[in-house]
Amino acid sequence: MDRIYTIIQKEEMKRVSDEILASLDKLGKRKALTGEASTYSKQEIIDTISAFLDPSKPSTAGKCWDFSQERTKPVFIADGTILLRPLTARDEEFYTAIREQYSIFHKGLTMAQLTDYWSPDLRKDSAFYCAIEAEDRSQKMGYIAVKDTSKELWEIAVELDKAHCGQGCGSKAITLFLMRLNEITTKNQFQFLVEVDNIPCQSCMKKAGAELTGLHNYAFDSEEDAEQFEATHVDLITEHMRTLAAKLGVKPRKLLSHVLDYRINI
């Protein structure tokens, strides 16, 4: 996980922790007054924790695409060098290990606990995840996925084992994945959200033929929250961010609170 988004996540965790502590204090006061805890108050706390642990629940805006047939097949697509295949329950620890390479949380948890946290991603009806492998099956390199097919514009997520970054397999996997998705669904535009200081991923986007179309508020509930973060972290602005801002026609500070919005048309 890159520097700016790490700071955003840490500050968000502190904000939610403060809310949880305040709710617990409120619950304690109610118990002292009434002699028993309110079920509603307990649920308030549970909802606050759940919102933090899973802030991006699948949208219910539309019907999900049915990838049930594709999930049963051993290969989604291959090109002679790499192979994409549906992730299964046997891949849960591999998927967890990739996610944890880029996570700032969960330190000290066992692999079983981490797998319990991440593996539900693979079972979402609205998503479709594939492993990126060498075609001879000698090594797994990462994963690529459609995050939520109930949305009109499909966002693609891709993460590689750090040992395989910079080798060109990311852009190749993107090209293959989108080509096959287009054949199956006729979808012809896809979205990629990239952190502003993740320069290797931006290079991958360029290799894959993606176009930088703008910015996306990914981490904040409102533009007011985003602007407050910008005002207190202007020292994090880099020359690279200034270059991107000039290209997009926005103030450099806006890149502190937003991610880059890339699109690929097939």
List keywords for this structure.
266 residues, alpha+beta, Aminopeptidase, 18% strand
Walk me through what this model shows:
With 266 residues, this protein is α+β, with helices and mostly antiparallel strands. It folds into three domains: 1-55; 59-187, Aminopeptidase, CATH 3.40.630; 189-266, no CATH class. The chain has helices at residues 3-34, 39-53, 68-71, 92-101, 111-118, 169-185, 199-208, 223-232, 239-248, 254-257, and strands at residues 77-78, 82-86, 128-134, 140-146, 154-160, 189-194, 211-216, 259-265. Strands 1-2-3-4-5-6-8-7 form an eight-stranded mixed sheet, with helices on both faces. Helix 1 (3-34) runs antiparallel to helix 2 and helix 6 (169-185) crosses helix 7 (199-208). The longest helix is centred in the N-terminal third of the chain and has 32 residues, at 3-34. The two termini are 29 Å apart.
